[in-house]
From TrEMBL:
Binding site for ATP: 381-383, 405-410, 494, 509, 520
Molecular function GO labels: acetate-CoA ligase activity; AMP binding; ATP binding; metal ion binding
The protein's required cofactors: Mg(2+)
UniProt modified residues of type N6-acetyllysine: 603
Chain residues that bind CoA: 188-191, 305, 329, 517, 578
Binding site for Mg(2+): 531, 533, 536
The name this protein goes by in its record: Acetyl-coenzyme A synthetase
Species: Candidatus Terasakiella magnetica
PTM remark: Acetylated. Deacetylation by the SIR2-homolog deacetylase activates the enzyme.
Record EC number: 6.2.1.1
Keywords: Acetylation, ATP-binding, Ligase, Magnesium, Metal-binding, Nucleotide-binding
A Pfam family annotated for this UniProt entry: AMP-binding_C
Lineage: Bacteria, Pseudomonadati, Pseudomonadota, Alphaproteobacteria, Rhodospirillales
Gene name in the database record: acs
Record bears the keyword Metal-binding: yes
Length: 643
């Protein structure tokens, strides 16, 4: 039996939903989605109201539409409609890497900044439907750039600042971006990140037409005549009046590249209307957001969490959202908690990997802060282990703050499975129950539907407004990746257990995707980076348990004939992967393997490699079908110590 933490009655009394209301709304949302979403779609302002609500099919060509004849604009909903009531309210609290730097930006101010940049972008020839790549640090201009794109109907494609020039170039190419918005340098944990220098390499490779550069550090960078302009200069010259483009509900809002089991990362494409309705509604209910709350999500805008729960959801709700440039342990390991006190944060949303690393530092760095404004805590990105959950609950939340363990994906646009603070009794490690309109299903490997308490592959049987609509420029890939494994269902790639109370426990990816510190990485991507090295003949990459990161990257490398393994070469290969993809893809362990376990037809048996990396030798299964069963013993003998 797992521990159960009942709902705190004080929280339930004030919350948007208690258990009874959750059950009633959930029932309505699945029994009558048209009526439910027809009503809740009105939480955003529409230029032309919709008359149709849901029109979606997971069969055949897979066609997903919500509110399809309505028109609106995301930036209008995040800014203009708040001006009358809350123009002087703080929209974004920005906390710099250096604790002495912070800034409060009101809705009025943000509106002006967005309009100016939008006009400056237009002057550079960017308009509706054009793609713009953002490669930004966590500074207010990142949110301004997102909203400026939304305002003029341009589609942003954000690339996390930790990706390499090549990875950036691939994404610029994939999205066909004509403009890049970046900064001279980023600043994280006191260290500079050479964003513009990286962007130069990528832009030169892809022949990008124009680039707007924010001055963040004042570092020495090259500005290319005719291509690069300073953000400050072009916005100073621009008018603060830029009408919001009328967008159809189904027009794309953004593309975000994410890793899959095979091939290049996919351009996950999200739309305007359904996405915003879903991001805003989940933000309000799941974090139990109330007027006046200060809300802080520690993610980076380079990931989907930053899109939906730093920028779009909170701003659509007229919230005060905190944007943090730095890292949890700089200048000290109390930084998160100091920021909570400094800005009187009520709702705090972070990743288990951050909690685990801070937990190592003991209670003192937390307890020296008051944290008395905190009311709700959130977790996202990977399963949260019960030890980390308990520490988060007791040491950070002082036992008074419900923890919402939110399960979702880049593809889902918003949270699908999560407790609601006033409604759901908690079990540490469980994401609990589906949000309104979400219909999870567990199936076995043959696609048979499993009922009751069981383990299985997690699918969704019907669409919700915030889900992705296609892979940018490749609808076939969208169909293949998500709807072909189990026909007529969206397959998440995750395994899950459903318990006797109907609670879901996510057990992790069942495909070749790994989750490193909550960042998603395709094993195939790391492999192709490795084999691109002149000395490498073959490589196989798997995930293995890592104390801090959740999963770490374990690689098996076969060198070309005549090459000798050495510690130096090991270092060189790790550095190579960092250069090819970015620091987030750094291998944690590297094993030289003269042979890899292959079937007689030459297919690498990853299952065996995964088990060896996990030290789970009893579960290797049948190895008799291998071309050379002897390689297994050799691999076991030379495995890397993961401690
Ligand atoms: O395996 C699940 C894990 O993260 C994957 C999605 O990664 P990404 O698209 O990068 O989005 C991360 C932020 C939404 C999922 O397939 N995951 C995410 N949240 C949880 C989780 N695993 C367990 N519990 C969670 N709360």
């Amino acid at each position: 039996m797992s521990d159960i933490y009942p709902v705190n009655p004080d929280i339930a009394a004030k919350a948007h939903a208690d258990n009874e209301k959750y059950l009633e709304m959930y029932k309505q949302s699945v029994d009558n989605p048209e009526e439910f979403w027809g009503e809740h779609g009105k939480r955003i302002d529409w230029f032309k109201p919709y008359t149709k609500v849901k029109n979606s099919s997971f069969d055949g060509d897979v066609d997903i539409r919500w509110f399809e004849d309505g028109t609106t604009n995301v930036a209008y909903n995040c800014l203009d409609r708040h001006l009358e009531k809350r123009g002087d309210q703080v929209a974004i609290i920005w906390e710099g890497d250096d604790p002495s730097e912070s800034e409060n930006i009101t809705y009025k101010d943000l509106h002006q900044r967005v309009n100016k940049l939008a006009n400056a972008m237009k002057a550079q020839g960017v308009g509706k439907g054009d793609r713009v790549t953002l490669y930004m640090p966590m500074i207010p201009e990142a949110a301004v750039a997102m909203l400026a794109c939304a305002r003029i109907g341009a589609i942003h494609a954000i690339v996390f600042g930790g990706f390499s020039p090549d990875a950036l170039a691939d994404r610029i190419k994939g999205s066909g971006s004509k403009m890049v918005i970046t900064a001279d340098e980023g600043l994280r944990g006191g260290r500079k990140v050479p964003l513009k220098a990286n962007a130069d390499l990528a832009m030169d490779r892809e022949g990008v037409e124009s680039c707007i550069v924010v001055k963040r550090t004042g570092g020495d960078i090259d500005m290319k005549d005719g291509r690069d302009v300073w953000y400050d200069e072009v916005t100073a010259a621009a008018s603060a009046d830029c009408p919001a483009e009328e967008m159809n509900a189904e027009d794309p809002l953004f593309i975000l590249y994410t890793s899959g089991s095979t091939g290049m990362p996919k351009g996950v494409q999200h739309c305007t209307g359904g996405y915003l309705v879903y991001a805003a509604m989940t933000h309000e209910y799941i974090f139990d957001y109330h007027e006046g709350d200060v809300y802080w999500c520690t993610a980076d805008v380079g990931w989907v969490t930053g899109h939906s729960y730093i920028v779009y959801g909170p701003l659509a709700n007229g919230a005060t959202t905190l944007m943090f440039e730095g890292v949890p342990n700089y200048p000290t390991v109390s930084r998160f908690w100091e920021v909570c006190d400094k800005h009187k944060v009520n709702i705090f949303y972070t990743a288990p990997t951050a909690i685990r690393s801070l937990m190592r530092e003991g209670k003192e760095p937390v307890e020296k802060c008051s944290l008395d404004t905190l009311r709700v805590l959130g977790s996202v990105g990977e399963p949260i282990n019960p030890e980390a959950w308990n520490w988060y609950n007791e040491v950070v939340g002082k036992g008074n703050c419900p923890i919402v363990d939110t399960w979702w994906q880049t593809e889902t646009g918003g949270i699908l499975i999560s407790p609601l603070p006033g409604a759901t009794a908690l079990k540490p490690g469980s994401a609990t129950r589906p949000f309104f309109g979400v219909e999870p299903q567990l199936v076995d490997n043959d696609g048979n539907v499993l009922e009751g308490a069981t383990d299985g592959n997690l699918c969704m049987t019907t669409s919700w407004p915030g889900m992705m609509r296609t892979c940018y420029g490749d609808h076939e890939r969208f169909k293949q990746t998500y709807f072909s494994t189990y026909a007529g269902k969206y397959f998440t790639g995750d395994g899950a257990r459903r318990d006797e109370d109907g609670y879901y426990w996510i057990t992790g990816r069942v495909d070749d995707v790994i989750n490193v510190s909550g960042h998603r990485m395709g094993t195939a991507e790391v492999e192709s980076a490795l084999v691109a090295h002149a000395k490498v003949a073959e490589a196989a990459v798997v995930g293995a348990p890592h104390d801090l990161k959740g999963q770490g990257i374990y690689v098996y490398v076969t060198l070309n004939a005549g090459e000798e393994p050495s510690d130096e070469l090991k270092k060189e290969l790790v550095k190579w992967v960092r250069q090819e993809i970015g620091p987030i893809a750094s291998p944690d362990w590297l094993q030289w393997s003269p042979g890899l376990p292959k079937t007689r037809s030459g297919k690498i048996m990853r299952r065996i490699l995964r088990k060896i990396a996990e030290d789970d030798f009893d579960a290797l299964g049948d190895t008799s079908t291998l071309a050379d069963p002897g390689v297994v013993d050799e691999l076991i003998e030379n495995r890397q110590n993961r401690q």
